[in-house]
Amino acid sequence: MQKNRRSLYLNWCLLSGLALVLVSCSSALPTGEARTKSQWNSFDEAKTSYDNIVLFDTVTSDLQALGFDPYTTPNVRILSYLDIIRKFSPNDSVKPEDLPPSVRACIASREACLAYEATPGVSTSKRVGNVFLDLLKFKRDRIETGWNFNALIVIDHGLVVYKIWSGVPIIDEEVSLDNPLGPIQDAVGSMGKGAVGI
Prior knowledge:
With 198 residues, this protein is an alpha+beta fold. The chain contains 7 helices and 6 strands, in the order αβααβααββαββα.
């Protein structure tokens, strides 16, 4: 009887110690990174390259040095004039006369008109918080950081005639997910869906 109590006490101590280690060691949580490969390491670098593109002066050979050439820079997409139409006129409410004149003229050139689209960026996701609650799915906290930059460069007969950019210089988001039932939340949810379908 005494041995059983001692054994139970030791097991309880070991489990408690393990739980304390898990709770205190947030580095045990997974992290991940998604990076769109490019020559730029930051939002500012990408924006500086973009700012060096001069309308009606920069030609396709200049774009290579600036990092916007699909044949030398990874993940730069080539758009045809049909893709450009879809970009600028996503629905019937946008009429041809609403488009910038240089884009209208480019589209009229048909096959001589194209665009380069670059979307460099970095997104890092890190789970933080209580490891014990995270592993048992009671509470999961995640911090997402990074940046992204989007550039569209319209080229007519090898000459840049239009450009536009958008992006997020600093991404810093906190995402929290609470599951009061922990590991049985998914099972209860799937049972609920089945019941609705009956």
